[in-house]
Specification:
81% helix
């Protein structure tokens, strides 16, 4: 039961930080306008067959809007899936905690989980949270620094 509880806490923290990372990536992607990509309407071979420039412009704009809408829908789906996973892991951990406390309260006196053991489990779960936070702090730093040498320097000094 205790190993399962710690694994559940690990999955809960991991999914929470993954969700935050995905949300940050989504916000970054939303601020990135597809228009700044150097896509010229003349780079599309199928447009070369069309002589009318108004039709070319209209098709290119339609293509652009469809691509933007598809990107936005995919980003929303990623966030929803990450939220669902986070909620499942949080619920699983909470059920495990409730089960542990109910077992302690309902078990016969000679089979009760010592309170010290519960405190150790809580401390272990806290250490798991801190470890995951540290890992994701480094992941965020990695994405903030484009130069790998600078990132490696930070990692070496962090240890």
């Amino acid at each position: 039961m205790f190993k399962q509880l710690c694994c559940s806490k690990y999955r809960q923290e991991l999914s929470e930080h993954e969700l935050q990372l995905i949300q940050q990536e989504v916000n970054d992607a939303k601020s990135f306008d597809l228009a700044c990509i150097s896509l010229s309407k003349f780079e599309f071979k199928f447009l070369d067959t069309i002589d009318d420039s108004d039709v070319k412009d209209k098709l290119f704009k339609e293509y652009y809007h469809v691509a933007q809408k598809a990107r936005d829908e995919m980003l929303k789906l990623c966030v929803r899936l990450a939220e669902k996973l986070r909620d499942e892991h949080r619920d699983s951990f909470n059920v495990g905690i409730k089960h542990m406390w109910s077992y302690r309260n309902l078990a016969p006196a000679d089979e009760k989980i010592p309170f010290v053991m519960i405190q150790l489990i809580e401390q272990r779960c806290q250490k798991i949270s801190e470890r995951i936070q540290c890992i994701y702090k480094l992941k965020k730093m990695k994405t903030a620094y484009s130069d790998n040498d600078e990132y490696l320097f930070l990692i070496k000094n962090f240890e």
